[in-house]
Amino acid sequence: MAKLRERTVYLNGDYLSANEAKISVFDRGFIFGDGVYEVVPVFLGKLVDKQYFFERLNRSLGEISIDWPCSKEYYLQVLQTLIDRNQLQEGVVYSQVTRGLAERDFHFPADATPSLMAFCTPMNLINNPAATTGIKVATTTDLRWKRRDIKSINLLGQCLAKQEAVSKGAVEGWMLEDGFITEGVSSSAYIVNDKTVITRPLSNLILPGIRRRTLLELASSAGINIEQRPFTLNEALAADECFISSATTMALGVVDIDGKRIGDGRPGPVTKEMRELYTSHVLDEARHG
Questions:
Q1: Burial letters for 13-22: b for 16+ Cβ neighbours within 10 Å, e otherwise?
Q2: Considering the chain, what percentage of its residues have pLDDT values greater than 90?
């Protein structure tokens, strides 16, 4: 059995070592994937994009009728306590809410108590070497369900797609449906043409990415043109630039799709500007937020 990296995690009121934290086999998250999650970046030991991720978590819980396991204030306190106890300066905090323990039955139990779990992971977000080199992506078929706007913990479709992409020598997968790119396996997807950023509009077919939301706001303020519409794989292959965004990647240039070079094979100027805008934004929030 793989040994977990030692850290303090949170589970239903207790702060425990990673090897001590256990859930019941009757937790509906374990049996059905009946729950939702969030991944929040940490810079300078502070959470960023707090309001946006809280709004998304609140919406996801409401969409599948799970009650909040605690107050907003306590939830944020848990995440910051984990950051402090683990002395995390840069990385992410993962939190997960499930419907809780119940006998195995498909309908929602009337008396289950929601379960809250969270842990943090150190990561090199700002000085990620891939920001300079760019990354390779591979296209995969989008096998997911039709409520992708809910940040569900049921991620088997994404796991299959990521493994397919990795087996092709790529870092990320871009999922295809009806000839159009929906989004990245674990990121939002963008192309750039004539200095205009193009990304799919929000709907039940994609996750409303927090970095997507923040980046589009920053781009608009900086005078960068934004076009929200579906785009095809052929458009992506012919684009001036392509990039992704997520909690762990911020904004990273895509320089190769299915073995075909994008642009000059390096992250482009708009991609670099988007990353710089986001970096400046989150560091300012961490210092003063």
A1: eeeeeeeebe
A2: 98
pLDDT tier at 167, thresholds 50, 70, 90: very high
- Enumerate the β-bridge partners of residue 40: 93
Q: Which of 151, 168, 260, 272 is catalytic?
A: 151
Side-chain half-sphere CA neighbours of 152 within 13 A = 22
Rounded Cα distance, 183 and 103, in Å: 36
* pTM of the predicted structure, to 2 decimals: 0.96
The answer to whether 187 and 245 have CB atoms below 8 angstroms apart is yes
First to last CA, the chain: 41
Query: What are the structure tokens assigned to 161, written together?
Result: 């797609």
Evaluate whether 26 touches 32 at the Cβ level (below 8 Å): no
Give the pLDDT of residue 5.
80
Q: Are strands 135-141 and 250-257 parallel, antiparallel or unpaired?
A: parallel
> What percentage of the chain has pLDDT greater than the value 70?
99
Q: What is the gyration radius of the CA atoms in the chain, in angstroms?
A: 19
69: β partners:
none
Question: Does the annotation mark 195 as catalytic?
Answer: no
Is pLDDT above 90 for 4?
no
Neighbours of 66 (CB within 10 A): 21
